[in-house]
């Protein structure tokens, strides 16, 4: 579905992404793991059309994405849930959800109900201002808002950031439920244990380069990965 080849990205005056290549097959969960500054979020933002690449190729279902604006990439089925959630605090849960569908011109009722089934807490709070939600609820809202775009691939940037261990587990349970519904997922996550436990395939990034890849299960038991990222 998604193919990234020899991608180079400068960000903040430095080469943040250095010739990385990876693939996200249709219907899979693929994760990028690594420390802060490894280039993970920059990679997602480049795929989403928010950051310009200097070289390389990003194809989605065989179509080149580099150079296309963000709204065109959303129309093609790729939606980014950004780091920090970035919900609209002075708008209700329902209004935030509808903003996720801003490029659509069809009826939203069925998809809103589907999102409420995935996130029952959002249904309970659909008239509540998003800024009054807890961190976990805001993450659910950010994910629900993204799903309203009719995405076929969801990119999640640090969904567990700032959440308690109990909420982290809940968010990852939801990620797996979304995946079971047929969603392809590209996940960036510092919690390598959780990310690798759900991933079909994983890539380890260090200073803008892919230094290792394998199945999630393989990397969970890899001594180098365990030492660097899992505290083992």
Give the topology string: H per helix, E per strand. Answer: EEEHEEHEHHHHEHEHEEHH
Number of strands: 10
Radius of gyration from CA coordinates:
17 Å
* Secondary-structure-derived class: alpha/beta
CA(first)-CA(last) distance = 34 Å
**Broad shape:** globular
Low-confidence stretches: none
- The side-by-side strand order for the widest beta sheet comes to 6-7-8-3-9-10
Tally of separate helices: 10
Strand proportion: 25-35%
Average pLDDT score: 91
Task: Report the biggest beta sheet as strand number plus sense, adding barrel if it closes.
Answer: 6 strands, mixed
Give an overview in words.
The protein has 232 residues and is α/β, with parallel strands linked by helices. Helices cover 36% and strands 26% of the residues. It has helices spanning 40-47, 70-75, 93-99, 109-118, 120-124, 135-147, 165-180, 192-198, 216-220, 223-229, and strands at 2-11, 14-24, 29-33, 55-60, 63-64, 78-81, 153-157, 184-188, 201-206, 209-214. The strands form 2 sheets. It has a 6-stranded mixed beta sheet, with helices on both faces. Strands 2-1-4-5 form a 4-stranded antiparallel beta sheet, covered by helices on one side. Strand 9 and strand 10 (209-214) form a beta hairpin. Helix 3 packs parallel to helix 6 (135-147). The longest helix has 16 residues, at 165-180. The radius of gyration is 17 Å and the shape is globular. The mean pLDDT is 91.
């Amino acid at each position: 579905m998604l193919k990234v080849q020899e991608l180079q990205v400068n960000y903040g005056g430095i080469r943040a992404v250095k010739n990385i290549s990876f693939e996200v097959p249709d219907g899979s969960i693929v994760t990028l793991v690594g420390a802060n500054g490894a280039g993970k979020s920059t990679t997602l933002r480049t795929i989403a059309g928010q950051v310009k690449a200097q070289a390389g190729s990003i194809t989605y279902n065989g179509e080149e994405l580099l150079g296309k604006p963000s709204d065109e990439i959303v129309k093609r089925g790729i939606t980014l849930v950004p780091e920090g959630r970035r919900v609209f605090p002075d708008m209700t849960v329902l209004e935030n959800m509808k903003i996720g569908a801003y490029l659509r011109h069809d009826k939203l009722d069925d998809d809103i109900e589907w999102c409420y089934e995935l996130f029952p807490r959002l249904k309970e709070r659909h008239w509540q201002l998003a800024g009054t939600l807890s961190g976990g609820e805001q993450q659910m809202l950010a994910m629900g808002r993204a799903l309203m775009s009719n995405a076929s691939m969801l990119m999640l940037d640090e969904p567990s950031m700032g959440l308690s261990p109990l909420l982290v587990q809940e968010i990852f349970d939801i990620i797996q439920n979304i995946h079971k519904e047929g969603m392809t997922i590209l996940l960036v996550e510092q919690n390598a244990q959780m990310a690798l436990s759900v991933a079909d395939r994983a890539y380890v990034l260090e200073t803008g380069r892919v230094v290792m890849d394998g199945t999630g299960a393989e990397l969970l038991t890899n001594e180098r990965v365990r030492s660097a990222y899992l505290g083992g």
